[in-house]
């Protein structure tokens, strides 16, 4: 049985998070936390039984199954991070479906809130409204509940019952850390004191740099790196940008920056779960790119995506972890906003406002992409390296403080 973070072999540790479906950042987080606590094989708990090892992830068990396995033994539960404070049961359950199942259930229930909640609770076998926070009474003997670098920028706008559940669960936790000032301020308004700590993914270069460099010399990554001798931009966007107008704007702006800097474009998916990235949208964008070298990156493997970003000239997209991984490798990155999206509803803006360089541009709407990327790519490499070091140091300090208390 695995040792706990404090080193006692009789107290297993359970890493808990949304790494039970394909999303780049969520798959990465348990690798980082596992390395930081120094355990070879902690338990990985989620809301569904899944084996994501084919994509570089973990074998994940439901909390109910893990609770039955550990019985009355004391356990430590570590929430590994992610935007979990505002993920509803409905959202969690839909994202655990296949794309076809998700489309069918959303078409049937999206406009029927009471029925969709009942369906989600039945799917998850939980009554919780915020299921990626540990349900009360799940384990018979919990020694510590640690929440690392959680996100919840829209906590102020969720329904009151959800917010009350978040406050109650965090109030019962041993230690709470959040990854941005916006979430921290909202929790403070509700009586929850918490630490600020960077997302654990800021340590990806320090912890896994050698592994990622080796990955870049293999298969699809190697072909892309060698196929763009002048470099390429790593580009990602979710299905929210799949309308014709957004795709046309993205194409025009990407062509402009690629031509000006003599770069290729590599389009990749940061998430294949429902409500993430859609391959058909990437294909439609590629068809609009004329005279600009473009490749659709097929791999969904976590380490391939890390290698793709790490060997690029920069990242652009609306994946927060795409940006964090680029930043950890001291590369420029820029976030993407929907046309009517307020900056306060952007995880990228919230993270950059807390941990970014003062005055740096965090995210833009599609029609401002070229100018924004030009600004991001004009930053000094030494400044980016220093920021990456600051991120890593702050993250390690946060983990150390938790283990000492």
Describe what is shown at a glance.
This protein is an alpha/beta fold. The protein has helices at residues 24-37, 63-70, 89-95, 99-109, 113-124, 160-172, 181-189, 204-215, 219-227, 244-261, 279-288, 302-310, 320-328, 347-355, 369-377, 381-404, and strands spanning 13-16, 43-46, 50-51, 59-62, 75-79, 142-150, 175-178, 195-196, 232-235, 264-267, 294-296, 315-317, 333-337, 363-365.
Any key phrases for this structure?
single chain; 405 residues; alpha/beta; eight-stranded mixed sheet; six-stranded parallel sheet; 16 helices; globular; disordered N terminus
Question: Can you offer a commentary on this structure?
Answer:
This protein has 405 residues and is an alpha/beta fold. Helix content is 45%, strand content 14%. The chain has 16 helices and 14 strands. The protein has helices at residues 24-37, 63-70, 89-95, 99-109, 113-124, 160-172, 181-189, 204-215, 219-227, 244-261, 279-288, 302-310, 320-328, 347-355, 369-377, 381-404, and strands at 13-16, 43-46, 50-51, 59-62, 75-79, 142-150, 175-178, 195-196, 232-235, 264-267, 294-296, 315-317, 333-337, 363-365. The protein has an eight-stranded mixed β-sheet with strand order 3-4-2-1-5-6-7-8. The chain has a six-stranded parallel β-sheet with strand order 11-10-9-12-13-14, with helices on both faces. Strand 9, helix 10 and strand 10 form a beta-alpha-beta unit. Helix 3 (89-95) crosses helix 5, helix 8 packs across helix 12 (302-310) and helix 10 packs across helix 11. The longest helix has 24 residues, at 381-404. The two termini are 23 Å apart. The model is unreliable at 1-8 (pLDDT under 50).
């Amino acid at each position: 049985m695995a040792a706990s973070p404090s080193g006692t072999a009789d107290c297993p540790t359970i890493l808990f998070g949304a790494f039970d479906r394909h999303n780049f950042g969520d798959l990465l987080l348990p690798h980082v936390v596992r390395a930081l606590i120094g355990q070879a094989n902690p338990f990985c708990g989620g809301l569904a039984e899944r084996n994501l090892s084919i994509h570089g992830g973990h074998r994940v068990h439901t909390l109910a199954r893990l609770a039955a396995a550990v019985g009355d033994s004391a356990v430590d539960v570590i929430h590994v991070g992610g935007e979990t404070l505002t993920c509803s049961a409905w959202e969690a359950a839909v994202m655990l479906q296949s794309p076809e199942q998700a489309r069918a259930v959303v078409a049937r229930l999206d406009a029927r809130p009471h029925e969709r909640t009942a369906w989600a609770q039945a799917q998850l076998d939980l009554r919780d409204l915020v299921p990626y926070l540990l349900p009360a009474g799940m384990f018979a003997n919990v020694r510590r509940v640690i929440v690392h670098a959680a996100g919840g920028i829209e906590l102020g706008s969720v329904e009151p019952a959800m917010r009350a559940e978040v406050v109650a669960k965090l109030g019962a936790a041993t230690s709470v850390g959040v990854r941005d000032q916006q979430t921290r301020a909202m929790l403070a308004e509700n009586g929850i004191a918490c630490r600020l700590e960077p997302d654990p993914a800021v340590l990806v270069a320090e912890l896994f740099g050698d592994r990622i460099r080796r990955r870049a010399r293999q298969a699809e990554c190697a072909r892309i790196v060698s196929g763009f001798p002048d470099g390429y931009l790593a580009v990602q966007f979710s299905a929210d940008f799949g309308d014709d107008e957004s795709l046309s704007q993205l194409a025009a702006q990407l062509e402009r920056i690629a031509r000006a800097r003599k770069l290729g474009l590599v389009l990749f998916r940061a998430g294949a779960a429902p409500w993430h990235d859609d391959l058909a949208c990437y294909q439609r964008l590629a068809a609009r790119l004329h005279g600009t070298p473009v490749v659709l990156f097929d791999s969904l493997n976590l380490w391939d995506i890390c290698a793709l970003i790490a060997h690029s000239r920069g990242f652009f997209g609306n994946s927060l972890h795409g940006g964090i991984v680029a930043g950890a490798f001291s590369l420029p990155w820029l976030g993407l906003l929907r046309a009517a999206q307020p900056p306060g509803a952007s995880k990228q803006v919230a993270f950059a406002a807390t941990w970014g360089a003062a005055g740096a541009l965090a995210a833009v709407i599609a029609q401002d992409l070229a100018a924004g990327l030009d600004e991001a790519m004009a930053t000094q490499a030494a400044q980016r390296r220093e920021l990456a070091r600051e991120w890593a140091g702050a993250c390690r300090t946060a983990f150390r403080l938790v283990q000492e208390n």
